[in-house]
Amino acid sequence: MKGYLLDTHALIWWWTDHPRLGPKARAVLQDPANTLFLSSVSVWEIAVKRKAGRLELAGSLAELAADPDFRPLPITSKHAALVETLPDLHRDPFDRMLIAQAKCDDLVLVSSDRAVQAYPVDLLPAGN
Q: With respect to CATH, is domain 3-125 assigned 3.40.50.1010?
């Protein structure tokens, strides 16, 4: 069993069944032998972007965040402290925290973000 943490864009692609989520990532995420994690970072990022009018996503964010396919992953002080040690390859604070969470908790990060892919973290490309 492996644990997978979805970058926010990959999470949105999963929730909306978007075709940009590639077949390999989709197969891994559908495999019941794998455990999927939903970071509070992604919920926060979606809330910020929806509030600013930069993201349209149907449905209640609280209901989406309660998705039974995912285990919740809160931000801990251990995660926050690791952010300080990450190289400055990516300026996005949401992505930096997701990277820290994946590293701390030995999770595979599902992402198509090239800047995220530059970090030494287990990665599954989200796209085609």
A: yes
Asked if residues 72 and 64 have their Cβ atoms less than 8 Å apart, the reply is: no
Give which of 121, 114, 118 is closest to 98, Cα–Cα: 121
Angle between helices 40-51 and 8-16 (to 10 degrees): 80
pLDDT in tens, 53-90: 999 998 888 898 899 999 999 999 999 999 999 998 88
Question: What's the first-to-final CA gap in the chain, in angstroms?
Answer: 24
Alpha helices (H) along the chain = 8-16, 23-30, 40-51, 61-65, 77-83, 93-104, 114-117
Collapsing DSSP states into helix, strand and coil, what is residue 9?
A: helix
The set of long-range contacts for 53-62, using a CB threshold of 8 Å and a minimum separation of 24, is 55/12, 57/12, 57/15, 57/16
Q: How is the chain split into domains, by residue range? A: 3-125
Question: What is the C-alpha separation between 82 and 123, in angstroms, rounded?
Answer: 18
pTM score above 0.90: yes
Q: Are 97 and 82 in contact (CB under 8 A)?
A: no
